[in-house]
Amino acid sequence: MLKSNIKWVLIFALLCVLCITLHIVHTKGKSGKLAVIKKDGETVKTIDLSAVSEPYEIRIESDNGYNIIYVEKGKISIKDADCPDRLCVKQGTIENGAYPIVCLPHRVTVSIEKADGEVDAVSGGGAE
Amino acid sequence: MNTKKLTRLSLLTALALIIFIVEAQLPPIAPIPGIKMGLANIITLVALYMYGPKEAFTVLFLRIILGNMFSGQVSALMYSAAGGVFCFAVMCALYKILPRDLIWVVSVFGAIAHVTAQVFVAALITETPAVFWYLPLLLVSAVITGAFTGLCAYYCLKRWNK
What we know:
The complex is a heterodimer.
Chain A: H1 2-27, E1 34-39, E2 42-48, E3 56-62, E4 65-72, E5 75-81, H2 87-90, E6 101-103, E7 108-113
Antiparallel strand pairs in A: 1-2, 1-7, 3-4, 4-5, 6-7
Chain B: H1 3-25, H2 41-50, H3 53-70, H4 77-95, H5 103-126, H6 135-160
Helix pairs in contact in B: 1-2, 1-3, 2-3, 2-4, 2-6, 3-4, 4-5, 5-6
C-alpha cells in the first residue's frame, strides 16, 4: 500500500512541476498595450494604456454591484469593489497580458491585449 | 431509508453546510480567483464511502444550494454547482476502482475536476479565454487541497465507521 501511495505522490508532484513550469514560461515575455474591460462577456471599454497621461478611474456597474477601475500609464488595476471577497482588488495591478483580472461575482474582467486586438496566438482561440 | 440513515445523512448535510459557510467567511488564501480549501468536500467523501453515490449526491446538492443561499453569494452558485457536480462525477467513477486507503488520490482527482470545470464556466460566462491561464496555478492548488481534504476524510472514516 505504501508503494502505491508513493507512486501517486510522484505523479501529482510531476503534475505540479509541469504546471509551475507552464506558469513561469507563460508569465515571461508578455507585452500588450490595449486594456479590455468586459462585463458579462461584452466589451464595455477598450483603453490604449500607452496613451494615458493622467491616471483616472472608471466605474463599472453590474447587476450585483460595482467595480472601480484605476487606469494609469501602461498599467491597470481594480481599486475598489463591493463583491464579497474583493479578490479582484487583491489581484493588484496588471501591465502585461499574462493574467486577466477577474471579478467572478460581478462577471467583470480586465485583460490586456496586443494593440491589433488579438490576445495572443495561444489564448485567442478559446471560448468564443 | 431507515431513521438512523436519515438522521446520519441530515447530520452530514448540516456539518457540510457549517464547514462551507465558515470557510466562505475566511479571507482568501491567495489573490487568485477560485482557490479555496474545499473543506466541505470532506463530508461529500465521507458520505460517498459510507453510503454510496446516491446519498452523497443528495448531501452535496443540498449543501451547494443551501450554502450559497446562506452565505449570500447566489452569483457564485454557477461556479460552485459546475465544479461540485463535475468533481462528484469523477470521484464516483474512481472510488470503486482505487483501494480504500487511497481516498486522498480520489480527492485530488475530484479537486482537479472541480477547478477545471470552474475555469471553463468562468471563461464561458466572462467570455474571456485568457481566464484559462489560471488553470496551471489552480491545478497546483487542487493537488495540495485535494490531498489534504482526502486525508481528513480518510481519518474521519476510520473513526466513524460503525
